[in-house]
Design goal:
Heat Shock Protein 90, Helix Hairpins, two-stranded antiparallel ribbon, five-stranded mixed sheet, elongated, 12% strand, alpha+beta, single chain
Length: 353
């Protein structure tokens, strides 16, 4: 009862009127003397007024002291640019109204600082993204422009084979631009939390086979073999088949980009019965990743990753998109790699009930 301001005010009034009652009891001895009645009445009125004033000032001082401290804390927080936390004395979620107000301010303060830091990170990432996107767009545009201008200027002196070669190079750069724009669009949607998973039950073995076949021609052109390693009796999984297909495509593209002629890309599935999850692995015998770069391979536009992926002209967004998709599925992804030996990406999906 006495945790609220109303309860504490009632207690103060109760104590005050109790003191007045004691004063009256002590005055009972002289009340029967008519000569002292006017004097007694005067003393009672004067004492009541003084007591009321004292009690009001005490209660007001107690209330305004904590409110003043809270106001000073708010002013200090505003003066710091909403970036530095300020200590609040009256902060108790189980206290009275002022304590709860102070606790709410502390929580709001934490949330505002977190949001400001997040906005600063987003702004920094946006600046880096614009700078890197400008670089990635400039390279294929310059190449495409050069071949097309050469084709226009030397149209009469070029053979049909040379003209076709120039057009094929320009078309390849156009495809590269289209892939980059699509990755940027997808990554923006993931960062804005606009993607919602549509989970369904599907056989992961069939999806692995379909994706492997899709990259068969690209692998043959680079003399790279794509193997699959799993048993047909694996249970179905529960996930968004469209997004998981995108994950597999990104991982296989990443593996093909960093493999040379004669390399092997292996897609394997295994069951983890202890957790009722199917483990998916994509392993390649490519150039590998340096140990200092492993913690950053999923960061979009990480410079070391760009050097790592530069062999195939990748934009460095595929692994970032992969991480966002698996985060939506509450699934972790691990990477193991040895320079000159190869790389393995591993994640798991829940078995369908």
């Amino acid at each position: 009862m006495f945790k609220t301001l109303y309860g504490r005010l009632a207690l103060a009034l109760f104590v005050g009127y109790g003191l007045m009652l004691l004063f009256l009891v002590q005055a009972m001895d002289v009340m029967f003397d008519k000569r002292h009645i006017p004097e007694l009445i005067t003393q009672l009125v004067f004492g009541a007024v003084i007591l009321a004033l004292v009690m009001g000032m005490v209660v007001f001082a107690v209330l305004t002291r904590r409110l003043r401290e809270l106001a000073n804390s708010v002013d200090a927080f505003c003066s710091s640019g909403f970036s530095k936390p300020v200590r609040v004395g009256s902060s108790n979620p189980n206290g009275d109204e002022i304590d709860r107000l102070g606790f709410a301010f502390v929580e709001m303060e934490k949330r505002m600082i977190e949001q400001l830091e997040r906005l600063q990170r987003i702004d920094m990432q946006r600046r880096e993204l614009l700078a890197n996107v400008s670089h990635d767009l400039r390279t294929p545009l310059a190449s495409m422009r050069g071949y097309l201008e050469t084709l226009i200027l030397k149209e009469d002196s070029l053979s049909r084979e040379e003209q076709r070669h120039y057009l094929e190079v320009a078309a390849k750069q156009t495809e590269r631009l289209s892939k980059l724009v699509d990755d940027l669009f997808q990554l923006t949607k993931f960062d804005a939390r606009e993607v919602v998973i549509n989970a369904e039950t599907f056989p992961i073995t069939e999806l692995i086979q379909d994706v492997a076949q899709k990259f068969g021609l690209a692998a043959d052109q680079k003399d790279i073999r794509i193997d699959t390693d799993f048993v047909e009796s694996l249970p179905a999984v529960h996930a968004d088949i469209r997004l998981i297909e995108r994950v597999l495509e990104n991982l296989i593209e990443n593996a093909l980009r960093h493999c040379t002629n004669g390399a092997v890309v292996r897609l394997s599935l295994s069951l983890n019965p202890a957790q009722d999850r199917v483990v998916v692995q994509v392993t390649d015998t490519g150039c590998g990743i340096a140990p200092e770069d492993l913690p950053h391979v999923f960061n979009r536009y990480y410079q070391a990753e760009r050097n790592y992926s530069g062999a195939g002209g990748g934009a460095g967004l595929g692994l970032a998109i992969t991480l966002r998709i698996l985060d939506l599925h509450e699934a972790d992804i691990q990477v193991d790699s040895q320079p000159g030996v190869g790389t393995t990406f591993r994640f798991d999906l829940p078995v369908a009930a």
